């Protein structure tokens, strides 16, 4: 039966993360961007919320909770509302744990998962994006070829969060033209960090360009199974994070508009501004619901490719428009780094580019 | 629990209505667009016989009894159900949908603001006899959006109200007053100096002397629907035909405000109708693309998508976004929640989305899209009204803006 009401557990989870995002994350978001650094303390605090461990079964040391994409959509929105860099950093271990949980064998689960159930944050990551125009998750240029029973990975990856700090990197590569996931340990020869990237937004998050040069991994490092649901999880996560970023910008602009006077009245009383804000509010809600629906479909075990792609693309357009409007509402002040809106615009611009940076 | 699965009952209803739409509406769709001002009498009779007594609008907010649940623990899905029904009917043909004999907007006002006696007197007739319509007349030649500018007057004279003025653009006004034993709810002021507080809603029955339909408009789309101008010249109606409290002062929850509250129910209904038209267009384009061998790859990166693919996906996403916003507004009503903001959100989104979606569809189909041989151009014409009536795009944005900014209509207008 159609319903828009999160259940009790989801509400609790969302509220917990929301209060963390507002009280702990947001106050340090500007600093993280300026210093290109995220303090360990916030990462550890986030770890203690159990966002990573909760989805890991008890037999592997986790809390044995579910892996509902709907719940995750709620969580991602709140984290994105706090700060996108920090959100992507603290969620990064899922880039390993989720593919292992969904696609991995028992041995792989036993080997990998317990590492992500300890008392402190352990970085994990994935290498999906590639530094080429026309990058396509279904036609990767990084290759995995069979060689004497092993796999050899070759090519270049970019936007790999936490790169060298990650205990495992899930590398996506084309095996006979088909995208597959491979588990690569951090000290595997042939896996080299090129450099930390300098990008327009999400500057707090350390992302790296990686080079795979004759990188040999055992055949057992391949995660069996279809990667499509993983990519759909990523689209849902990104769409929901975008909703969070957009909501942050919207609320900031709304409050500013009620305060700022021009021609004798608050600018919010001018229709040109009020209508912009109204459209922002509508589009944010619209995107959230598209993301929820995609997540709901995925949770039912159905193919959610269409829904999650539509939601992600819609979200990428929406967040750019909303954050841009937020800068516009603040006028010249929006262009100054004393205000957060320019940061959200830079972060928002990224969603059209991002693939696979987070998993719901 | 967040859930997008319709109940089995609702799916059954949707499928049944889809059959009605496809089997009985589509075949006569073009005919009643071309033959404006003629009634699809047989079809109306059939729809009357199957739907008698029920409002397609789903009826608005749940009353307490319904919410606390008639012994059943299942929450009501009356309003969500209504949006689903309306989407299917409008997928069939929006003009025909608006021509179904029905209590309509007039009935919605009586349901929302009427006393038990009024409900009985005015609504009982929809359960039997010949097909009937009811309508709502707010708009006048001098105003549309600014509904506080009502110039039609109501003056008390003994046991009667005497109404004078001109109403225009009244949907089903002709059918309600002259083609059936229906009624029109007319908004008039009892005291112009009192502004909004002076505006009351009056039930004007068919056959009331002094009430004349002077014109039925020729339109861009929804041509089967009748859009009437009504002149009231010393029209005398019984004293107890006023909805809500006739006093200007005092807490009048039911009069003007009551009638305004019906918008919270009818805006999702209009949005649903819009979505039905939009879906007709999207379904059509999808089929044509498939026939032409064009495949839609949803998971292709944007720079590899063809312009056509991108347009089509945008149409689908916009339509679905509008649908979800509409379901949400209706669902809130089913839960007895205040949905004024969400009702305007969905109406604004749906009105604009289907306008754009149908215009894009015509463009994509090229010469075929522009041709009257197929229905696409008609759907584009039909779609546009949804961005105009029940509050224009701008008026709904205004309502959303007031809500999110916490402004009164004085502060933001
Ligand atoms: C087919 C059809 C059926 C209809 N059915 C009914 C019916 O059953 N009953 C009924 O009472 N009415 C009905 N209407 C009338 C309809 O509700 C009005 O046309 C509508 O509300 C707009 O009013 P208007 O046409 O006077 O436009 P105006 O109010 O003159 O508006 C003109 C333009 O100005 C904009 N505008 C107005 N005020 C503002 C503002 N404050 N801020 C920004 N922009 C503003 C509007 O958005 C619009 O773009 C119907 C109309 C049509 C065409």
In words, what does this structure look like?
The complex is a heterodimer of chains A (360) and B (413). By secondary structure, chain A is of the alpha+beta class. Chain A has 3 domains: 8-116, Orthogonal Bundle (Butyryl-Coa Dehydrogenase, subunit A, domain 1); 125-223, Butyryl-CoA Dehydrogenase, subunit A, domain 2; 228-352, Butyryl-CoA Dehydrogenase, subunit A, domain 3 (Up-down Bundle), CATH 1.20.140. Chain A has helices spanning 8-35, 40-47, 69-82, 84-91, 94-103, 106-112, 228-259, 271-299, 305-330, 341-349; strands at 125-127, 143-147, 150-161, 168-175, 178-185, 191-196, 207-218, 222-223, 261-262, 265-266. Chain A has a 4-stranded mixed sheet with strand order 1-4-5-8, covered by helices on one side. In chain A, helix 1 (8-35) packs parallel to helix 3 (69-82), helix 3 crosses helix 4 (84-91) and helix 7 packs antiparallel against helix 8. In chain B, helix 10 runs antiparallel to helix 11. In chain B, strand 2 and strand 3 form a beta hairpin. Chain B contains 12 helices and 8 strands. In chain B, 49% of the residues lie in helices and 13% in strands. Chain B folds into 3 domains: 8-120, Orthogonal Bundle (Butyryl-Coa Dehydrogenase, subunit A, domain 1), CATH 1.10.540; 132-256, Butyryl-CoA Dehydrogenase, subunit A, domain 2 (Beta Barrel), CATH 2.40.110.10; 259-405, Butyryl-CoA Dehydrogenase, subunit A, domain 3 (Up-down Bundle), CATH 1.20.140. At the A-B interface, helix 7, helix 8 and helix 9 of A face helix 9, helix 10 and helix 12 of B. Residues 105, 135-139, 143-145, 169-171, 219, 227, 385, 388-389, 392, 394-395, 398, 413 of chain B line the site of flavin-adenine dinucleotide.
Features of the shown structure:
heterodimer, A: 360 residues, alpha+beta, Butyryl-Coa Dehydrogenase, subunit A, domain 1, Butyryl-CoA Dehydrogenase, subunit A, domain 2, Butyryl-CoA Dehydrogenase, subunit A, domain 3, 3 domains, four-stranded mixed beta sheet, four-stranded antiparallel beta sheet, 10 helices, 10 strands, 17% strand, B: 413 residues, 12 helices, 8 strands, 49% helix, binds flavin-adenine dinucleotide
